[in-house]
Amino acid sequence: QVQLVESGGGLVQAGGSLRLSCAASGRTFSNYATGWFRQAPGKEREFVAAINWSGVTTYYTDSVKGRFTISRDNAKNTVYLQMNSLKPEDTAVYYCAAKRFLRPSSYDDRNTYDYWGQGTQVTVSS
Fold this sequence. Notes:
By secondary structure, the protein is mainly beta. The protein has strands at residues 2-7, 10-13, 18-26, 33-39, 46-51, 58-60, 68-73, 78-83, 92-99, 115-116, 120-125.
C-alpha cells in the first residue's frame, strides 16, 4: 500500500503561484509514477500532470503547459506541483495519485492509478 497526503492548497489571486506537495508513505515510493489530477465542482476529475519514478519523464495537459511544473524528491518521498500564473479556471480540488508504471498510452487515465490522496483545495480569485 501507498498512502498519499496532499498539502499546499489555498486561496490565491489570479497571476499568483502555489506549490502543492504530495507526501508518500508505505511501499518504496521511488518505484511509483505519480500524477496530479483536479476536479472542479460539477465536473469530472481531469488529468493535470504526471512524472515517472525517476523524474526524467513528465507529461502535462495542454492548459497548464508552461505554467505548471511537476517534480519529485525521492529522498523525501514527495512529489511537487509548482503552479505559476494561476487562473480562475484552475480552481479545483487537486489530487495526487500513484501507480507502478507510467505509459504514454495511459498516463492521463485516472482509472489506471492505484493510490489516491484526499485532495487539497486550490481557489484562484479573479
